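Dear colleagues,

As part of the handover before I leave the project, I'm documenting each prediction I ran so the next person doesn't have to rerun anything. This entry is a single chain, and its sequence is reproduced below.
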Amino acid sequence: MNHYKLREWQSSFARAQRKNDTLPNKPIYPTWEQIYVEDSTTQAVGSILSNNPRGILWYRDELSGLLADLGRYDNKGSDGGDKARLLSAYDCGAWKVSRSTKDALHIPHACVSIFGTVQPDLLPSLFKHKDTVSGFLPRFLFIRCEQEAPPLWTSESFDGEPADHIHGFIHQALDLNFGPENSP
């Protein structure tokens, strides 16, 4: 919904309240189904999940940026709340979000998968001891890929058979049925 329509509804609602008239119907917000998000906050991920019951993939080319941003908008600057929230997304746990500035959200099955890359030498600075004991770090699967030789520059784009495999995989995953109690 655009802001103009929302403001228009708010003013007509206020006029109707003053006149004790029939209140207008609140506009319906359009839903945007997303498969993945990129540059996002944990709070925004909650809003996105409310419209995407199958869950989402949180992709960040440099995972160090995603991990550094956790807690960025917390007034204490702590990443504990964001990491705890993501811990419950590992097994598609419920998220209940109540903020004074937004409508409350209840997401029965918040399923978030994080995908990206990180330089191996950065790992010790990105994760703390408490990330290990809390279970945050063990929820990551790290794969180290080493090239035998530097890749040659090519103007060929990523298409054809490899892209078809990835697209096919995504469509197969989206065609999967929900589990018990509509869990992803």
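The chain has seven helices and five strands. Strands lie at 36-37, 56-62, 95-97, 105-107, 112-117.

All the best with the project,
I.
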